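Q: Second attempt. The first request was missing the SMILES, so the protein and pyridoxal-5'-phosphate are both included now.
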Amino acid sequence: MPHQIQHMGSGIFSLGLSKCGQNRHFISRTHIKPRLLPRRIREFHMKFLFFLAQRYLYELDQHLDRFLKSATMAKIKPPFERETIRKILIQTVSASKCRKGSLRYWLSAGPGDFQLSPSGCHQSALYAIVIQNQSPPDYSGIKVVTSSLPIKPPQFAVMKSVNYLPNALSKMEAEEKGAYASIWLDFDGFVAEGPNMNVAFVTKEKELLTPEFDKILSGCTVKRVLALAESLVVNGMLTGIRVDKVTIEEGKAAEEMMLIGSGVLVRSVVEWDEQQIGDGKEGPVAQALRNLILDDMKSGPASVRVPVPY
Ligand SMILES: Cc1ncc(COP(=O)(O)O)c(C=O)c1O
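A: Got both inputs this time. The predicted holo structure:
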């Protein structure tokens, strides 16, 4: 596909569309010619969707807050104020004309001299890419395995960055074993998270249980799921919601297990380390939570849905 450089205002330079498998990519960046590959990039991604005549970015502000918090932890000063970054991201989606897909963005220390210290990088840079997703969603039950790779230390696990080699290797380990994802345990042996998703369980007592967030990434999706799940407590499907330490035995004995994240939304785990979870089928709570999230994307409050002017 041809590449066209287009000035879109607000420091956005579209590099045109590129085609990659089933997905179309639309890229913008705040430097026209970054001479070097971005170093110390911080990554983030989220989903947006098209609904009726309006299109929305889902949980833009929640993801942006985590992005900026991660930037502070990584000691990168963003090139723009929050509001400008927000506008750039919305404009990028709008310029892409993409109606269904995801937006990923990165913050880099900027073009520099390939040294370890970023002191030779003059100006941080923001990169954004819109990925059109044409594949139909797959919500079938999946298998997971316990990761043999160690989780990142808490200081790095709570931060969204592109230091994702352990995450990539852990995903590859799962695929090599015919599973969808590997589940990390923390350094004390408690259930932690997947390589790009959180985990949650429904206990025998019908409590929704998810690991504490002090040693893992604080997932925007799981946080929203926890809020939406209150309605399942009200209707009696759940007896309560608990954020707590989870042992591997407790997890494997759960009635339901699910992976939760902006990529998978809510997906049932039916087997963990070749041990069946619950009755080996997608559970009713996982199904209900996914429906709640999908409804929230279509008709949730303004705090989670930001309109994109196309
Ligand atoms: C390590 C890790 N945990 C959890 C998540 C889920 O976070 P979110 O719901 O914000 O996508 C992600 C997302 O990429 C992740 O990388």
